[in-house]
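Hey,
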Amino acid sequence: MKKFSIYFLLIGVMLQSAIAQQKNVVLIIVDDLKPLINSFGESQMITPNLDKLASESAVFTNAHCQQAVCAPSRVSFMTGMRPDYTKVWDLKTKMRDMNPDILTMPQYFRQNGYQTIGMGKVLHGARKNDKRSWTVPYIEDTDLTYAEGYRMPANKDYQSEEAQKLYDELASKYPGDPNSDKVWLAVNKEMKKMGVRQSMEAEDVPDDAYADGAIALESIKQMEKQRKARNPFFIAIGFHKPHLPFVAPKKYWDLYNRDELELASFQEHAAGSPRFAYYTFGELKNYSDIPPNLTPEGAVQEVKQRELIHGYYAAVSYVDAQIGKVMDYLEKSGLKENSTIVLIGDHGWHLGDHGLWNKHSNFEQATRTPMIILAPGQTKARQITAPEELVDVFPTVCDFSGLKIPNQLQGVSLKPIVTGEEDRLKDAALSQYPRGDRMGYALRNDRYRLVEWHQGGDAQKGIYNPDQVIAVELYDYENDPLEMKSLAENSQYSAVITEMRDALKNIIEQ
């Protein structure tokens, strides 16, 4: 009997040791983040914490989302499947309505014995952030603890006294929880009608008076709880900013001199591009202060452009500070050494280039977003210029965690690149965007972007039908980084187009 007790004791110790050695996953998602940071060769924004993380990580400078809008992009990278598989191409369609049994990243880690925790904006595009994905009930903004003396921001965003008072007055007209999505949407419409839904706010408040500051603190609390319990965990931390409205504590606005901020140098449509490649940035126009600041032609006036750029930069610097808090905790707690840390944006953002604002396009500024990976035991930073995709995140974190990569995933593990065994794993990244009954497919390699617009629906079914191609664009980033002219009609580039079209056909038909 004594031998059996010792045997089971040893088994218990071995199991505990195995659990302790399992690699945690910390997935940080930043909404609408474009790569204007120092580690990507830019200097516009003040992001010391992102720069520090990049200085010790694998930095993918040519990474692209699969569709430049929140829900389709997030459903894609959280399942490792492209939008034509998930069937989520807009903000209304819900993931499991189209694919009831689709497997999400946290769901897979949960199945493999991990504690899975999510908070903020993560699985936008799934009902209630997909309850079956999390072992810990999903942490909504209504569940967060805000700074002492502050409550949840009015309409989820604003902390000014006037906004709080107005929200209370408007919300009292509607039955139910004043912080529910139903009441929020109703009040949102009321505020817009009244002309008081602003695109930005710069209140002198603590970081955790807004949601992202409270999310950073809650994520630390949750990770510490799992550390003490010696549980392997997967945590998804979804920061809301710099998504509109641009709200951030005043100290982050004070980092910038608005008069010195540069406007987009090319604000025209690219020569040779189809008109339907563009849009009228309705998301921005939903804010009350935008319509009065448009030119007769519908462009944002220069003064307002500079104000919006200021707001975007301030919001990024604010999120950067919250990322710094998370990284400081991981360092001091010792979790950093046993965690795969991945930081991504869900897509980029237009700041006036091509006359566009928001995302919603197949252009570079919409599809390209930061991707930074810090693996356990990593000692050397790497900068990777080869094209990669957000759909690669799921297999990558599985690989670093020692989990079998699910066979159906459409991305590839980037572990060989992160560790330095390989320099590239694919030759191009694919993004797509719908315009009515047209679907534009954008293939980006090291130098070029080929965009094909298909009309008829065959491509979404995995059938490449050349008869349904109604327009083609080609951009050369070596000679034309601003996408000023499409070269699709230039015979000198016919070989490039043929090669890229064959690659696009192969991906569509996979």
